[in-house]
Write a structure and sequence with these properties.
Chain lengths: 455, 371
Amino acid sequence: MLSLASRSLPAGSALASASRNGTVQSVQVRGYAAPKGPAKIQKQGFVNKGKKKKFIQTVDPNKMKRIPAFKPLTANQLKSEIFHEDVKTELQLPVFRPDALTESNALAKVMEFPTQSNLINRFGVPKNLNIEYRILSKSCAVVRDITLTALDKLDAASASSSKDNRVVLTGSSGCGKSVVLLQAAEYCAGRGWIVMYVPRVHHTVDSSTAYIYDSRTRTYLQPRFSWQVLRRFLDVNTTLLQDLKTTKEFPVERKAPVQAGSPLTDLINVGLQDGSLAPSVLSSLMTELSRQKTYPVLLALDNFQALYTRTTRYRDPKFEAIKPYHLSVPRLFLEYASGKKTFARGAVVGALSEGRADFVTPLELCEALGLPFPRPAGPYVRRVPEIVDYSQGLQKLAVPEKLSIDEAASLFDVWNTDKALHSLPDDDLFMSKYSEASGNARAFVWKGLLATLTS
Amino acid sequence: MFNVLRQQARAPLRRAYATQGYVPPAAANNIGQSMIPRFKPRPVSPTFYTGLPSYFENVNTLESAITTSRNILQNLQLLPLPKFARDALPESTPVWKGKDELGFQVETKLTTARYRRLVGLLTQLEEFRKIADTAGCVEVAESIGDVTVLFQRENRDAVLAGGKKKPVQFDKYGRTYTIGRRKESSARVWMIPVQGKSQKPAAAAASSVPSVQAPLPPAAEVNESQNEATSPDLTPFLSPKPLAKTEEPTEVTATNIIINNVPLIKYFPHSLDRERIMRPFRLAGLVGAYNVFAIARGGGTTGQSGAVALGVAKGIVAHAPEVQPLLKKAKLLRRDPRAVERKKTGRRKARKAVRIFFFSSCSASLMLTFY
């Protein structure tokens, strides 16, 4: 049948060859149906429609047929970094080492904290910095003018008693007090100081940790918090503490006492083994550290104003609020901060936290530091005498409200390199967010750069 | 007999007087005023016999003035003017009196048609005055002007000046003072150009025109480097050229915005409000060029931020006029007329309607409305 059909067709026709190959398809051609011409495309762009203008944008139907089917690209063709989400970029930053911290080298540069010091890993950081360091690939901070000022002060303090070196970092919310404190702690750790850094001091007064009344000291002990402090302190300062020896015997119930002349690590281990001994071990440890002159000691406290609150969240059996100086750990910190107890060599540095509503900077502390108190406080407003006493002799170190443009630019660079920005990283974004934030560091990063999706 | 009586009775009615006859001189003395024949006085103007004498008097005066001035101008060969000369004539800005005022002047209550006729004549006269003035015929122009000025408003200059926006004033420190409003809020905004550390504070002429500036002393460094080759550069011949040219880093300044004595970040916690204020700077490309101090009163956050943004946009236009079409296109110079819609009677709020429930008995008294 096919052969018969092929003989009737002209020799050179496609249909003939197709029929010979066996691939012929019958094509019906109706003469009365005129073939469709090319589709008419109406005028594109803005077209006057009476008084108004209408925008017409239609796809050319003639062209539509020519678009081939979409096919996925091979892995070799996907060269842009947008497609490589699994590849994590790591920031390449200079390390925050004491020898690298000169004005020409370090000012307005972001430096990463060294991992050898173990400070951040063991002591932790304040909550907002924690979130930041989770997002960033490296724990880092920008070195500002105030940082270098603080470090110079600490250098000067390393030789003298902590009674003369009790500094409080002040400034408005988000200006960078916690970061400067962290930098100070890291610097001192790098310089061979013994560092006790407590990033969340408010946990000692917000009744988040266990407390128990001790009739001997007539204070409420905080065994769990003390244990944590000892644990972290030992981990960070092990090598230095092994060199230091106790001067007094430390009695232990139903066990051999810690002899005088034994390394401090032994003393700490006693407290770590028995949690109930931790508060007294901590107290003795601090006493030993205050006596020794081998190494300077830094006591760095963040959220410092929480110690000076009039009432803590703890309640006594009569359901009256317990005062901070009646709790073991806050009392210990207050004593060193007020100069009642001192380190032979070293400093006490505190950083206020202004953004908090739970523990606002109290009137007594404001007056001691010369800060403006937001509410009217004339002579008829009561100042708690104990708190006034504990806030004597504190020096203020004001952190500037604004980042300088160079410092802000370094921060911008870091966040951009870490692919945290959602918007195009041009100078318009930088300058507008910097101006909107009025130079405030936290507002610039968190409310500006990371909270924006602009074209 | 009756006839005679009748005649006698009728006689007084049939006296014949000689009205304009001869009067002997002696009889002319001691004649009362009523005896002197009176002639009707001639009216001052022929328009006396029209219904609106004063109006038509004015119309005639103006028409005769037009005729006279036309003749003068034709004699001076200023009329008819070719098209190019007519197009080249300056714009005339007469401010004719209104219908009521003009009506008072012509002592007639003017209808629109009559007022238009007067104004048409005045316009024609003003046209001739303009031609004469442009041609330099001072006396002709002045004489026509004396006529037209009677029909113009007293406060002509004030009327012409009104409706135009007053230009923003700069004070001695180069600050602008502008006002912005939005909803119930108003903001007073002072803007001053930021002076970098390299610029001297004495540069108080802080307009956007850089060409009109006193030459700065050589110690001061200007941001836009002006390379002036005053003397031939001999360093290639004397010493090796440095491999890399050390460029002076451009100083970057930031815009500081303070509202009600509080920095922007504290006054407006919401990013939308801050971005609204920053928008005119971003579009103009002038972020970091000006510092802003604003006092905002009334309304809430959106109103105050919108008011400050408008004040800022006006201030930017005052400092940098070339940016005006751009901000206008972006609708940043427009006082947003949207305001809270009033509550209407019969509705709970501006639009929120009252719910009506009908009960099955379908009585109007059972229709419950909830307010």
